[in-house]
Recover the amino acids of this structure.
């Protein structure tokens, strides 16, 4: 990511403090995560310190500071999913892919996150891979599903 | 700009065209839950089947009708005939239904779920009326009335069904008139606290100033709740109309919708709806010649539960860390950018158009004195019929769980109302009417509407640990009692679930819980201990089993359970041997297998394959050991 690329993103905004979260969201959408350089570029634009930007970014669970994988797995940790085995699914992902929540696999095939609630509680437990939500999952279905992603 | 009557007329024509269509109409529920269950594959299969049979039909994508456990749903209406609904429609099943009904006129009653409209001889013979189904019969659908019936992306569908008529009534009444009507209706905030909506508005309206803000709180953060997502996905205009009515009443100049980024479909639908409103002259300057200027901005939340709290939400819109402030001043007096601000929940706003259109007296026929109207709930957990429901306030829990929800899977143990901030109520509270005061008296709260049902297979201590772990992670860290206290409570609960609890832990939990409740600034900390305090009160014996006998009655807590093979049942199919990641299961084919507990990591893979595979014999059981308490631990 070059300085020019950051400037192009920032050009979409006015430079008001209230735009910090939308700017971070846009950067993450475009580049996959929030880099140190991104924060350095936002700081003079919004006239707030890098520390302050990092403070805001790290407060919200949406923002990532590491490079994402080619595919993204989100295991729902909502109440309904928890009661129907969400925790066990999370552990199975950790074991199968050798990752911890928030990390990306060494081969960059997957990044793995535990999320609060995907709002599909009636179909619990659910897992989201990229844009697809998989409902009524279990450990066996999970293993089969992982093989389908490159 | 077109006049409102003209718009309404055009919308009516558009709607009639669909209702009186000379082609068959196929409805598919494609809200997030439908999609998760495979609605997109279903759509493809429908299109393919139509093409292969050289049939033409209109396909309408609708929102969620609330029967989430039966998703994906597909309805078909032949020209001039009643609409018939089918449940759990796989692509293959869709083919059979379409070929049966559209080609041969045979509804295949055994596959049908229900029909809408009037009885129609052979076509509806043997099929129940949709709204007579046990899950729907006790419901009163006001907020959700359009969900599943209109195309959420078509403003004409909304307008043809009375949409924006409430706003026009509001313009006729004037701001004070609107506040009076809502006061008369007795509407209370549906976000959880139940504060009278008109009171908040009145305060804000009376504060002098030219700039005021109206915010819709769609940061539905409670895990296990999806009412707001469903409403926005199924009928976005109802929420937007409500937002306009509220903004007009308080004299707001600009509106925000603060919505979770985890709800991408809802965001897309809102954006489309707002663009349509601009086209129809329902947003912008001088809306429908009312002298009222208003516009709406969507703000995507970035994942922080505490931002559901008003002052934290405002901080987040301002681009800061979402940390609550002490009140007063209340946002109604000094909120966003220090201007008077009203924040209303999605459902509160969704109710408003109905009140304005039909009047306060009409609204008051539902519910009980002091708790008028209806409330939506997401009915989930260990329940037979899970989904999204709407009932009048005052409906007993028993009716919701057993009549509508069909009861729990295994014998009923508890119900959690109000999400992580609520309480766990035992079976003796089943006759409690669901209203703000009764739930409060039982030690729980109404909350935003998550109802999580637990059965015998749910461990109460584990659930309490789960909720506390959630609130602890979501605590913003401002108040020490919440930040440190919740962490301590999680630690103690974790010890108990591992069988390392001490009897005095229960006293510690009680004291900590009460301290956190009293010593926290915002609703998150003030309610975080509720799951512990209520379970200590109503399910103490379950804590004691964990502590004294190292026994988890529900066989959930990992450290207290073991997996075993029942030799009599085991068919020796080796399915479990193949899935075991640690080689803990061994044994030759056709002979009962051995499970080495020292190697077992309790990953559940063998249990699931044994349960669901046809050849395997459901021979693996999970059970909790029980140790006889010795003198010291008692």
């Amino acid at each position: 990511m070059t300085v020019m690329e950051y400037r192009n993103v920032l050009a979409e905004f006015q430079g008001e403090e209230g735009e910090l979260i939308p700017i971070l969201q846009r950067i993450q959408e475009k580049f996959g995560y929030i880099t140190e350089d991104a924060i350095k570029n936002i700081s003079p634009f919004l006239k707030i310190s890098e520390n302050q930007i990092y403070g805001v970014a790290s407060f919200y669970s949406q923002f990532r500071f590491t490079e994402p994988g080619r595919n993204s797995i989100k295991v729902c940790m909502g109440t309904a999913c928890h009661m129907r085995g969400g925790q066990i699914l999370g552990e199975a992902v950790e074991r199968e892919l050798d990752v911890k929540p928030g990390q990306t696999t060494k081969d960059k095939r997957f990044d793995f996150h535990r999320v609060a609630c995907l709002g599909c509680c009636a179909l619990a437990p659910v897992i989201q891979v990229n844009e697809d939500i998989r409902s009524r999952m279990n450990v066996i279905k999970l293993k089969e599903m992982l093989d389908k992603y490159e | 700009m077109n006049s409102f009557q003209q718009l309404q007329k055009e919308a009516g024509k558009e709607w009639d065209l669909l209702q009186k269509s000379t082609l068959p109409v196929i409805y598919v529920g494609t809200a997030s839950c439908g999609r998760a269950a495979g609605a997109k594959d279903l759509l493809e299969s429908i299109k393919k089947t139509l093409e292969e049979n050289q049939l033409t039909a209109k396909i309408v994508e609708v929102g969620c009708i609330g029967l989430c456990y039966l998703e994906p749903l597909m309805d078909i209406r032949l020209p001039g005939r009643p609409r018939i609904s089918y449940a759990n429609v796989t692509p293959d099943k869709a083919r059979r239904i379409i070929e049966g009904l559209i080609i041969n006129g045979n509804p295949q009653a055994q596959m049908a779920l229900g029909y809408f409209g009037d009885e129609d001889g052979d076509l509806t013979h043997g099929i129940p009326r949709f709204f007579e189904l046990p899950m729907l019969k006790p419901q009163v659908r006001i907020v959700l009335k359009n969900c599943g019936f209109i195309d959420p992306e078509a403003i004409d569908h909304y307008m043809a069904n009375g949409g924006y008529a409430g706003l026009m009534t509001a313009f006729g009444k004037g701001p004070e008139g609107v506040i009076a009507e809502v006061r008369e209706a007795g509407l209370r905030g549906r976000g959880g606290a139940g504060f009278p909506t008109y009171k908040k508005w009145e305060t804000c309206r009376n504060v002098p100033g030219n700039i005021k803000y109206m915010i819709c709180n769609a940061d539905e953060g409670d895990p296990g709740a999806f009412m707001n997502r469903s409403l926005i996905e199924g009928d976005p205009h109802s929420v937007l109309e409500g937002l306009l009515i509220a903004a007009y009443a308080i004299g707001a100049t600009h509106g925000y919708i603060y919505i979770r980024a985890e709800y991408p479909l809802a965001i897309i639908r809102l954006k489309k709806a707002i663009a349509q409103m601009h086209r129809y002259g329902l947003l912008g300057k001088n809306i429908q010649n009312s002298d009222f200027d208003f516009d709406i901005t969507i703000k995507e939340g970035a994942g922080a539960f505490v931002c559901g709290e008003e002052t934290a939400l405002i901080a987040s819109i301002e681009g800061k860390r979402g940390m609550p402030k002490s009140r007063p001043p209340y946002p109604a007096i000094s909120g966003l950018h220090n201007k008077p601000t009203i924040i209303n929940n999605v459902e509160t706003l969704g109710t408003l158009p109905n009140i304005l259109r039909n009047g306060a007296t009409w609204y008051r026929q539902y519910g009980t004195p002091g708790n008028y109207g209806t409330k939506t709930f997401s009915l989930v957990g260990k329940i037979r019929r899970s989904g999204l429901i709407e009932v009048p306030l005052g409906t007993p829990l028993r009716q919701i769980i057993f009549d509508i929800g069909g009861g729990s899977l295994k014998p009923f143990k508890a119900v959690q109302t109000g999400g992580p901030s609520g309480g766990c109520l035992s079976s003796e509270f089943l006759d409690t009417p669901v209203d703000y005061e009764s739930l409060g008296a039982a030690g729980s709260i109404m909350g935003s509407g998550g109802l999580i049902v637990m059965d015998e297979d749910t461990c109460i201590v584990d659930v309490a640990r789960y909720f506390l772990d959630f609130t602890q992670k979501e605590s913003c860290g401002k108040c020490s009692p919440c930040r440190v206290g919740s962490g301590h409570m999680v630690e103690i609960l974790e010890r108990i679930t591992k069988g390392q609890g001490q009897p005095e832990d229960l006293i510690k939990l009680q004291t900590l819980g009460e301290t956190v409740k009293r010593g926290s600034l915002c609703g998150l900390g003030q309610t975080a201990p509720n799951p512990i305090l209520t379970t200590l009160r109503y399910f103490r014996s379950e804590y004691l089993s964990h502590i004294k006998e190292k026994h988890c009655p529900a066989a959930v807590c990992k450290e207290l359970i073991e997996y075993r093979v029942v030799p009599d049942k085991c068919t020796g199919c080796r399915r479990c041997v193949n899935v075991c990641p640690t080689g803990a299961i061994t044994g030759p084919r056709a002979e009962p297998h051995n499970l080495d507990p020292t190697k077992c990591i309790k990953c559940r893979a063998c249990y699931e394959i044994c349960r669901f595979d046809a050849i395997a014999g459901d021979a693996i059981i999970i059970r909790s050991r029980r140790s006889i308490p010795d003198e010291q631990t008692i």
Notes: The mean pLDDT of chain B is 94.
